[in-house]
Amino acid sequence: MLILLDQDGVLADFERGFHEAWDTRMGNLHPALPLEQRRAFYVRDDYPDTYRNEVEAVYHAQGFYRDLPVISGAIEAIQALLEFGHDVRICTSPLNQYRFCLPEKYEWVERNLGPDFVHRMIVTKDKTVILGDVLVDDKPSVTGTRTPAWQHVIFDQPYNRQADGPRMTWENWNAVLGTVRTFDGKH
Ligand SMILES: Cc1cn([C@H]2C[C@H](OP(=O)(O)O)[C@@H](CO)O2)c(=O)[nH]c1=O
Ligand SMILES: [Mg+2]
């Protein structure tokens, strides 16, 4: 299968990175929301409007995307998927404020998956134009200008539990991906 893996919220732990950076900057005024209480996909929507600028300052900051921790189990699972013979790509959207986010997404992949993996990066604002059998993404609804070729498998996070459909973690990935059908109907 051609497997598209989203980066933030699937491989890179945006939530933990945000939580730690927020507590360092703002914790004395408004402690970071615990992960299990996150409900909105965009972290800014779970914080009071009065903190909008401070929330954005956290992920617009230099080093934020580069230094995100790895979601536990992701690297080992990618190695296993490659060994199974799957074609694995990273399919990620940059912030409109791309100055640090965009190069740092590449740095993150180079650092955590190795320089060869940089070849596997697909950076797009519209994931529906990208071909694949499956897109593993933490966004509850991935939309764009086309009817996607891929099947969306939701990567389980507290803020996407309202969405229907198959959901995956780095514990159950093997079973969940086994249910995805490829273009030609073969598994
Ligand atoms: C602003 C914001 C971005 N992101 C991620 C999603 C995108 O990466 P990805 O497509 O790899 O999941 C990237 C730019 O929006 O940052 C969040 O996960 N939560 C947020 O609140
Ligand atoms: Mg994501």
TrEMBL record:
<dbReference type="GO" id="GO:0008253">
    <property type="term" value="F:5'-nucleotidase activity"/>
</dbReference>
<dbReference type="GO" id="GO:0009223">
    <property type="term" value="P:pyrimidine deoxyribonucleotide catabolic process"/>
</dbReference>
<comment type="similarity">
    <text>Belongs to the 5'(3')-deoxyribonucleotidase family.</text>
</comment>
<dbReference type="InterPro" id="IPR036412">
    <property type="entry name" value="HAD-like_sf"/>
</dbReference>
<dbReference type="InterPro" id="IPR023214">
    <property type="entry name" value="HAD_sf"/>
</dbReference>
<dbReference type="InterPro" id="IPR010708">
    <property type="entry name" value="5'(3')-deoxyribonucleotidase"/>
</dbReference>
<protein>
    <submittedName>
        <fullName>5'-3'-deoxyribonucleotidase</fullName>
    </submittedName>
</protein>
<feature type="active site" description="Nucleophile">
    <location>
        <position position="6"/>
    </location>
</feature>
<feature type="active site" description="Proton donor">
    <location>
        <position position="8"/>
    </location>
</feature>
<dbReference type="Pfam" id="PF06941">
    <property type="entry name" value="NT5C"/>
</dbReference>
